[in-house]
Write a structure and sequence with these properties.
- There is one protein chain.
- The protein is mainly α.
- It has one domain (7-151).
- It has helices spanning 7-30, 38-64, 67-70, 74-106, 116-142, 152-167.
- Belongs to the TMEM138 family.
Length: 168
């Protein structure tokens, strides 16, 4: 069974991915405004973490739909999208650290002042957020390249690589 990524399906997935990025950005902005209520912050953080997991899942779903993946040439996708995957994972980990740290520090103390280490981690998370938005959106658009869904050039490249390895 092959899962071909049609234009309609790609449009739906790209729209969902864009919505997840907008939600993440909105929570990053609004979490600073809702610091007075820990319960609201907790809900926003859970939603943000869920959106990050869904965004990565949607990106992986598009990878799995490619001809490249289905023919077992996973390393080609990994080479092309390695940075994106690493940035996604790093952003998720750093975001989760910021969420846990801020909730633990503030839960019983609404007048909590930010420590220098927390401020550094917070700034790193916000900086990494911009990098994450760039790489994620770029990968979501690059995966629409028809070469990932056709076997024309891939078979020639695979044969060329095998011939190159055989002569060495």
């Amino acid at each position: 069974i092959t899962m071909k990524l049609t234009t309609g399906r790609y449009t739906i997935i790209l729209s969902a991915q864009t919505l997840l990025l907008i939600i993440d950005w909105g929570i990053n902005v609004s979490s600073l405004l809702t610091r007075e209520n820990n319960a609201i912050m907790l809900i926003l953080f859970i939603v943000q973490d869920a959106c990050l997991i869904l965004a990565l899942s949607a990106l992986l779903l598009t990878f799995f739909s490619t001809y490249v993946f289905q023919t077992g040439l996973v390393y080609l996708l990994y080479e092309r999208f390695r940075t994106t995957l690493l940035v996604c994972m790093a952003y998720f980990v750093l975001t989760t650290i910021v969420h846990i740290w801020s909730l633990v520090a503030r839960w019983n103390n609404l007048k909590h002042s930010w420590t220098t280490p927390f401020l550094i981690v917070f700034i790193l998370q916000r900086f990494l957020a911009t990098i994450y938005y760039y790489y994620y959106k770029r990968a979501a658009l690059r995966i629409s390249d028809p070469r990932f869904y056709e076997d024309i050039e891939l078979e020639q490249n695979k044969i060329h690589q095998l011939n190159g390895q055989a002569t060495q």
